[in-house]
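Human: I hope this is not a bother. Would you mind checking the protein record under this note? Thank you for your patience.
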Amino acid sequence: MASAGRSGARNLAELIQRNLYQNVGYLELMTSTAPRELGQALDQALAPFDVAGFGPEQLDAAFAATEAVRRDAHWNQAIPDFLDTFERQAFALLDEATRRRVSGEERDRELVLRYIPQLYRQVPLKTFFRDAMAAMMSVAADRRVVALNLVQAEDDPRSRWQFDAQMKILDYLWARMGKPDIALHAGELVLGGSPVEPMWNRMRDSIEIGHARRIGHGVAVAWSRDVVGLLEEMRRRPVLVEVCLSSNESILGVSGAAHPFMLYRRAGVPVSLNTDDEGVSRGLLTMEFVKAAERYPLSYADLKDLARNSLEYAFLPGDGLYLARDYGQLRPEFSEVRGPIWRATPAQEALLAQDAKLAREVRLERAFVAFERSLETGFREP
C-alpha cells in the first residue's frame, strides 16, 4: 500500500476517507500484516536450507525447523500488536468524526477493515515459503487478517518458472496450518506479454492445488485447457472472480468485448468489481461500476447483485442473509428486511451481533432501500 514515499498508515487513512465517501461498508486490503522481525526469526530457523535448491522435497524438514517460531506466543502476539499500531497510526490522521465511523464496536461501524497479506511471486522459493508461513500465522493470530494472496507480474520469467513449486508450497502449508482462506491472482495474462503455455493451467491449478476461493483478474480464462469444464467447476464450487476493469485495461490493454466479464456471467461464475491497486492508482470502486454499466448489458438489478457478491464472497464469518447464495431468498428471520420501514427486533439484533456477514449484508440491503427512496426527491441527500 505504500506509494510515492508515503507511509502505509497514510495510505490507509486516505482509503478510509475515500471509501466512506463512496458508501463502501467493507474492505479487504492487501498489505503487510506481520512485523519484519517475524520474517527474520523464520529466516534464522530456515538458515540451513539452500536458497537455490529449496523445493517441494524440503517441505517436511523446513516445516519442522520452524516449529519453535510458529508456536512461540511472542510471535503470535506480535501480529495483532503490529496491526494495532498500523491502525492507530492511520486513525490518528483522521478527524474525530471520521474515526468514529471506522472504530469502536464493529456492529456499529460504517466501514469494517480486513487485511490480506501478499506473497511475492519473484522471490526465491525459500523466501516464498517463509512469507506464506508468516501470512498463515497472521490469519490464525488475528481475525482482521482473513486470507492471503499473490502479487507481482505473472508473465515475469521467474513467476512462470516457480509457479508449480509455489502451488505445492501453498498446498502443503494450507493443509498443516488450519486451511486458511486463499484468494489468488491468476490469469492476469495476454499473449503480448506471455507465452500461451502458462495460460493453460494457471487458474485451474490456483483453484485445485493453491486452494483459491477467489481468483483475481482471470483475464486469460479462455486459453485454459477444457475452459468449459473449468467454468463449470468455478460455478459449482463456487469460485468468485475479482474483475478489475480499469487495471486490465491499463496494464493488459483488455477491455470491452475482449474482456471475459460477460463470459463469466453467461457461465454462471460469480464475479465482483474491484479496484486492484487502489492505494497506488487512486482508483475508485464507483468508477468500476460506472464502467461496467457503460460497457456491458447490465440492469440496475444486476448492479445490485454485483455489490451483493462482494459481501457474499467476502472472507467474513457467519451464515449471512441469503439462502444458498440466492439473493431472492432471505433467511426467514429477515424476510421483511427490504421493507420500507423495517427495524430490527431485539431477537434480530442478537442474530446480527453473532453473524458478521449477516450484519454487513443487512446493512447493504437497508442502504439499497434508502437509496431507492431517495430517488423520490431527485437524488437530494436527506
About this structure: The first helix runs from residue 8 to 21. The beta strands are 26-30, 112-116, 118-120, 149-151, 183-186, 214-217, 240-243, 271-273, 322-323, 326-330. Residues 38 and 45 are 11 Å apart (CA to CA).
